[in-house]
Amino acid sequence: MEDFREKCRELVSRLNEASEAYYNGREEIMSNYEWDALFDELAALEKETGYVLPESPTHNTGYEGNNGEREEHEFPALSLAKTKQVSDLQKWAQDRTVWLSWKLDGLTLVLTYDQGRLVRILTRGNGTVGTNITYLKKSVRGFPLKIKYQGHLVVRGEAVISYSDFAVINTMIEDDDEKYANPRNLASGTLSLDDPEKVKERRVTFYAFTLVYREDPIISWGERMDFLEKEGFTVVEREKLTASEIPLAVERWTRKVESSEMDLPVDGLVICYDDTEYASSGSVTGHHASRAGYAFKWQDVSAQTRLKYVEWSCAASTISPVAVFEPVLLEGTTVSRASLCNISEMERLGIGQGCMLEVIKANKIIPKCIAASDSAGILEIPVRCPVCGADTQIRLSPRSQTRTLHCTNPDCSAKHVKKFTRFVSKAGMDIDGLSIQTMLKFMNEGFLKDFSDIYHLSEHAEVIREMEGFGEKSCENMMRAIERSRQVHPVNFIYALCIPMVGTDAAKKMIARGGFQGFLDRLENRSGFEDVDGIGPERSGSVLEWYENDKNRSSLKALLKEVTIEKVEEPPREGGRCENLTFVITGEVHHYKNRDEFKAYVEAAGGKVTGSVTSKTSYLVNNDTMSASSKNRKAKELGIPILSEDEFVERFG
Length: 653
Fold this sequence. Notes:
Blueprint: H1 2-23, H2 32-49, E1 70-72, E2 81-83, H3 86-93, E3 98-104, E4 107-114, E5 117-123, E6 129-131, E7 153-160, H4 163-172, H5 183-190, H6 196-201, E8 205-214, H7 221-230, E9 238-241, H8 246-258, E10 266-273, H9 276-279, E11 284-285, E12 288-289, E13 294-296, E14 303-315, E15 318-330, E16 333-339, H10 343-349, E17 356-362, E18 366-373, E19 392-396, E20 403-407, H11 417-424, H12 436-445, H13 461-466, H14 472-484, E21 487-488, H15 490-496, H16 504-512, H17 515-525, H18 536-548, H19 550-560, E22 564-565, E23 582-585, H20 595-604, E24 608-610, E25 619-621, H21 630-638, E26 642-643, H22 645-652
Parallel strand pairs: 2-13, 21-22, 23-24, 23-25, 25-26
Antiparallel strand pairs: 1-6, 3-9, 3-10, 4-5, 4-7, 7-8, 10-13, 11-12, 14-15, 14-17, 15-16, 15-20, 17-18, 19-20
Helix pairs in contact: 1-2, 15-16
């Protein structure tokens, strides 16, 4: 008797500990595959013995920490019963019309609207009480702040970060303690941040998956989703089915997940009844509403393979291990590589020379090693960085106690991948095909150490064509983009150099005084740019300090051998109608294509455009002249005229 109770306590403890880490953005303790296996074991033991602990995850909707202001849900957010059998879905559907949709792997949010305005956002929390994150309403995409419907409205959906955005964001996080294990982990951690701007940068998107309440109800679930779509919500993909159509539909949707086109993290499928009145009439058992919906999770398929070697890849400040193993067919595709995350994860799994690996595809997409056995020896940790050859150092994270490997060279090019990203950006050299991940691959291969090395990638074309994710066409397209960038506007070139405090505006001002050659002469003579309007001593000093660095000077000279700087005449002033005037432009524009074009006109006509209203501002241009915005209020306080765009055109256009 005590044996099975002790086993239950052990399983509950392990599952809840893993859930706490998973739901609060910390390092994963176990994979979904392992968690599901333990959960199934616990559920079977509880069913057999009838012994259920109050804190059992089989009877709780989830785990969420106590950070933030907690509020009670108007309508409890219960979880769905789950199955791995398609036949269970058919049996549940009976002879009724159902809808199939994704079970997105993110963070559930509940949105409340009154009189056409968003008034509250709660996280799901434990299903009864959630955390109020309404302050992030302008930071998450996928839902409107205002809707046409004026009644009381409650919408539930999933906030997710795509796999491609996850890869970029995680690469750019230099502190290992701040990195995330997967997109769901990142979404959870992001929505617990206090800084709305930081959240906005991470491109969290809300996908509505159900309309919980509307004052004048819509009975059909499908019509409810159509209504939300018309109101401006991003709505989860869906398909209308009968029970007999479910097997083929599940097969079809599964193929979508396995294809490379699927960028959203999903961990299953969901079916629900179209008849919402019938759906709401079911009973509630534990933390499940029997007719609210039924979740389908794929049977995890694992494969055994032999480790060939561990490849160490440097990204930002971390050198991460990747298992390279004998190719194995998994979920319809051939897999030969999987991330091992860090040294601690390697040790946890028991990774050793020539060991046997058990590999799965997490959520049918990401290859993941879940076990290792039969090791022939201990793997050596590299003592040299694969990118620059400098000494490496093992560090222990104080928060998660995770051991990670780092390069000790502060000038290692992999640590400055952000600069390479700026260099190839549209505002810089405008080179398509060089993503962060691609450049990191090239750095680890030794192809990229300096900006000028980009113009010698053609020397490695044969190797690049054979690299994972490349082919003949993608390689050719990248090479063509590199060649096109050899002819460059001076402003774009200066921006691409990554000089601190110098953006496109400052570059334009410096070029306007003597052209590009004048820019180089001032650098060489150390005369600076203090006399250039809008530059000032601090920015001028930053440019000269950048040039004093031998590495920067060498990089500039190497680049000038590879590119041709276009000769640009200073734009003629159009009558100087904005001469000696300073404008602030805010809000939407309609006469000009966009605010950049508007700004270009003002500067060409002798004026200046700044971002904030001060006593030196001549005019604020805002098509909503009666707006209560902070800029309008400031202008009125200072007695600065507010013009509509039409009034501006009439006076200065």
